[in-house]
Amino acid sequence: MKKQILLATTNKGKLNDVKEILKDIDVEILSFLDFKDYPNVEETGNTFFENAELKCKAAYEKYGIPSFGDDSGLEAFQLIGEPGIYSARYAGEDSDDEQNNLKLIKKLSDYPEPHLGRFVCAAVYFDGKNYKSAIGEIRGNIIKSPRGENGFGYDPLFIPNGYDNTMAELSHEEKNKISHRLNAFKELKKYLV
Q1: What are the backbone angles phi and psi of residue 143, rounded to the nearest 5°?
Q2: So where are the chain's domains?
Q3: pLDDT by residue for the chain (193 residues), tens digit each?
């Protein structure tokens, strides 16, 4: 039987990204979507790392399966790192991607272009005894009007350095070759091989 690792998320986009990144090692990636009664982990940490650790610890404690937690977000340099750890709930607790994007565009409109920033991903693996962690980032430019249908979150607003397309205009495969999540999970993969 394949080794199972639980990714502490209900986000299908994130799950697909991680499965793609880890496809060449012999593990089965589960997520909270595979369970009916999963823990609702509040992101009360002050950093991406703290939130990622809270998630994988809660997942392990609930199911006893080695777990990944990750927390990621967009940091706009002109906004001193906003939305940062609040990326998923930037426009309020129940906000969706579109509302979060609109709030970011509005706040950046007070500043001159270009709007430089970075996507950050902190990933943590917990096997019940040890934590392993890694961080990944990708830098680029935040634009004023969304472009592209792929991806999720702030992908339609972010053009990575060296590209003309937003993350949402890149194919899933192209995005996974450069993404902040790839950079973090590639590091963690070394512990699993």
Answers
A1: -100, 170
A2: 3-192
A3: 789 999 999 988 889 889 988 999 999 999 999 998 999 999 999 999 999 999 999 999 999 999 999 999 999 999 999 999 999 999 998 999 999 999 999 999 999 999 999 999 999 999 999 999 999 999 999 999 999 998 889 999 999 999 999 999 999 889 888 999 999 999 999 888 7
Tell me, what amino acid is at 136? G
Q: Among 17, 70, 71, 97, which one carries the catalytic annotation?
A: 71
CATH of domain 3-192: 3.90.950.10
3-state secondary structure of 15: helix
Query: What is the amino acid identity at position 56?
Result: C
pTM of this structure: 0.90
**Distance in angstroms (rounded) separating the CA atoms of residues 191 and 69:** 15
Residue 152 near residue 181, CB atoms below 8 Å: no
CB 120 within 8 Å of CB 75: yes
Q: Are the C-beta atoms of 157 and 146 separated by less than 8 Å?
A: yes
Distance linking the first and last C-alpha atoms of the chain: 16
For Cα atoms 82, 172, 16, give the angle at the middle one, nearest 5 degrees: 80
Look up residue 13 and give its amino acid: G
Which spans in 27-171 are helix H?
48-63, 97-108
CA 192 to centroid of chain Cα atoms: 20
Active site residue 26: no
